[in-house]
Design a protein that fits this description.
The protein has 213 residues and is of the alpha/beta class. It has a single domain, classed as P-loop containing nucleotide triphosphate hydrolases (Rossmann fold), CATH 3.40.50.300. The chain has helices spanning 13-24, 31-44, 52-60, 85-95, 98-112, 124-128, 142-155, 162-178, 200-212, and strands spanning 2-6, 27-30, 64-67, 70-73, 76-77, 117-121, 134-139, 191-194. It has a 5-stranded parallel β-sheet with strand order 2-6-1-7-8, sandwiched between helices. A 3-stranded antiparallel β-sheet has the order 3-4-5, covered by helices on one side. Helix 1 crosses helix 9, helix 4 (85-95) packs parallel to helix 8 (162-178) and helix 7 (142-155) packs across helix 8 (162-178). The chain is globular and about 50 Å long. It starts with a strand and ends with a helix. The structure holds 2'-deoxycytidine-5'-monophosphate. 2'-deoxycytidine-5'-monophosphate binds next to helix 2, helix 4 and helix 8.
Length: 213
């Protein structure tokens, strides 16, 4: 069984999906994390980010392991590193390439094949698992999403300028919505949930309610 969740950055997807997986005793796959790990690998290897074919080759051979909410790249725990602002700044270009996405979608399908998974990202309900019976689109007002991302970084001790973060999120939203392949959009059969005025637990409960019904 797959529960598919899409939504923009800061909509609370990650925290809600994790809670959901715990409540329903399922595994959890953060596909954003897989794209983040790919971006880290490309940056650490000094790859030309304009070289789609080279990036595709890396994506095809990506050695990733996900255990609970930890993510391992080539055996190294990169869970914190992939959430750093330097990844946010470079990721949009990499995830826009159709060849890269094709390789990553196959990887994500292979990863979630092995059991019951809550899978979250941007194109899960539309491209990765469109046949899933349980599809949700999580959203929240832009200002709330910026605030959540700011708090998340602050809690990790990462210093970032609020204005810079706002611009960054705006730029990533635009890139997510306007990409030619795997763009962020609400699947017509996905349940829309606005988490602006909900706590993460309330939003997770709402989704559990839909599933149990
Ligand atoms: O969910 P996130 O912010 O960790 O995602 C990081 C980036 O990866 C984001 O800019 C959008 C992209 N992404 C994507 O293109 N497709 C997905 N299924 C998940 C994330």
């Amino acid at each position: 069984m797959i529960i598919a969740i899409d939504g923009p950055a800061g909509s609370g997807k990650t925290s809600i999906a994790k809670r959901l997986a715990k409540k329903l005793n399922m595994f959890y796959l953060d596909t954003g994390g897989t794209y983040r790990a790919l971006t880290l690998k490309a940056l650490e290897g000094d790859l030309d980010l304009k070289d789609e074919v080279a990036l595709q080759a890396i994506a095809k051979n990506l050695n990733l392991k996900i255990e609970q909410d930890r993510i391992y790249l080539d055996g190294r725990d990169v869970s914190e590193k992939i959430r750093a602002p330097f990844i946010d700044k470079n990721i949009s270009k990499i995830v826009s390439y159709p060849k890269v996405r094709e390789a990553m979608v196959s990887l994500q399908r292979r990863m979630a094949e092995s059991g019951d998974f809550v899978v979250e990202g941007r194109d899960i309900t539309t491209v990765v698992f469109p046949q899933s019976k349980f599809k949700f689109y999580l959203d929240a007002e832009f200002a709330v999403r910026v605030q959540r991302r700011f708090k998340e970084l602050e809690n990790k001790g990462v210093q970032i300028d609020f204005e810079e973060l706002t611009d960054d999120l705006k730029r990533r939203d635009e890139a997510d919505i306007n990409r030619e392949v795997g763009a962020l959009k609400q699947s017509p059969d996905a349940v829309y949930i606005d988490s602006t005025n909900l706590s993460l637990d309330e939003a997770a409960e709402k989704i559990v309610g839909y599933i149990r019904n």
